[in-house]
């Protein structure tokens, strides 16, 4: 991620502090509104992402405080992907309000694609012991479920929009997103570049185990400042979703005034 100077870090930290206070002071009505959102799937998705990104943030900050950098980096990579997915869904449903039916496709098609991919992994394991089992994942899955292979292919194609590189490409090209999120989105897109660097930590690669530690890549201070950007973005998404749904701007106003 591009270097952020101390003044920018303090500005972001101050914004995040205000956002958090506004959410904490209105947590019950925010949760109630999103659970009763006109699009219940969308409301549930945004609420779930907020809860779990907050959990990941707490765990990462705990590991940082304990000096457990490796664990913090593994969790940070997961948090980045959580946020990219939440921002993509929010952007298409809330900001662009296009006809993609993104929340529904996430809930149904993406879920179906996960089932196919999980089946595929298990199928590969079974083939270790029995090479007569169908090798092609889609063919094997379709045979077991009694459906046409075209259906499974269609599910995987539709769900591919939730692949990280596809979501990021969409977010980068959406000018309206930059306009509404401003500097936060620029910092977020810049931070996404480190997602690749953190891959080695998830998979136990040699870069993570040996070289990165020696080179002090992605140190505690950097992770902490990036976390402010990531969590702040999710908080903004939560508040804006609440504001549009409830037509109540008081929480957003509090986040600026506190």
Task: Please describe what this structure looks like.
The structure is a single chain. With 258 residues, the chain is mainly α. The protein folds into two domains: 6-96 and 175-257; 105-173, no CATH class. The protein is built from 14 helices and no strands. The chain has helices at 6-25, 27-35, 40-65, 69-95, 102-129, 137-145, 149-159, 164-173, 175-181, 183-191, 194-203, 206-215, 220-246, 250-257. Helix 1 (6-25) crosses helix 14 (250-257) and helix 6 (137-145) crosses helix 7. It is globular, with a radius of gyration of 20 Å. The relative contact order is 0.17.
Search tags:
14 helices, mainly alpha, 258 residues
Summarize the structure.
With 258 residues, the chain is mainly alpha-helical. The chain is 82% helix and 0% strand. The chain has helices at residues 6-25, 27-35, 40-65, 69-95, 102-129, 137-145, 149-159, 164-173, 175-181, 183-191, 194-203, 206-215, 220-246, 250-257.
Low-pLDDT parts are none
Total separate domains: 2
Percent helix: over 70%
Strand element count: 0
> Could you say which overall geometry the principal axes of the C-alpha atoms support?
globular
Distance separating the two termini: 29 Å
Report the sheet with the most strands, covering strand number, pairing sense and barrel closure.
none
Derived from helix and strand composition plus strand pairing, the structural class reads mainly alpha
For the CA atoms, what is the radius of gyration?
20 Å
Strand residue content: under 5%
Q: Please write the string of helix (H) and strand (E) elements.
A: HHHHHHHHHHHHHH
Chain-averaged pLDDT: 90
Number of helices: 14
């Amino acid at each position: 991620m591009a270097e952020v100077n101390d003044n920018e870090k303090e500005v972001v930290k101050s914004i995040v502090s205000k956002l958090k206070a506004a959410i904490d002071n209105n947590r019950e009505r925010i949760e109630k509104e999103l659970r009763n959102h006109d699009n219940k799937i969308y409301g549930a998705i945004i609420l779930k992402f907020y809860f779990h990104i907050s959990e990941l943030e707490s765990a990462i900050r705990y590991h940082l405080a304990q000096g457990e950098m490796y664990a913090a980096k593994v969790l940070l990579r997961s948090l980045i992907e959580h946020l990219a997915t939440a921002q993509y869904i929010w952007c298409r449903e809330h900001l662009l309000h296009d006809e993609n039916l993104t929340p529904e496709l996430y809930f149904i098609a993406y879920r179906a694609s996960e089932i196919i991919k999980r089946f595929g992994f298990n199928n590969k394991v079974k083939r270790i012991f029995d090479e007569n089992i169908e090798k092609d994942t889609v063919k094997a899955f379709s045979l077991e479920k009694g459906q046409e292979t075209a259906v499974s292919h269609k599910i995987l194609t539709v769900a591919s929009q939730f692949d990280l590189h596809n979501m990021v490409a969409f977010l980068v090209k959406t000018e309206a997103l930059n306009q509404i999120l401003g500097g936060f989105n620029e910092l977020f897109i810049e931070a996404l570049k480190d997602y690749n660097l953190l891959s080695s930590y998830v998979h136990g690669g040699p870069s993570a185990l040996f070289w990165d530690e020696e080179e002090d890549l992605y140190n505690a201070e950097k992770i902490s400042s990036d976390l402010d950007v990531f969590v702040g973005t999710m908080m903004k998404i939560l508040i804006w979703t609440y504001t549009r749904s409830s037509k109540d701007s008081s929480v957003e106003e509090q986040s600026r005034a506190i």
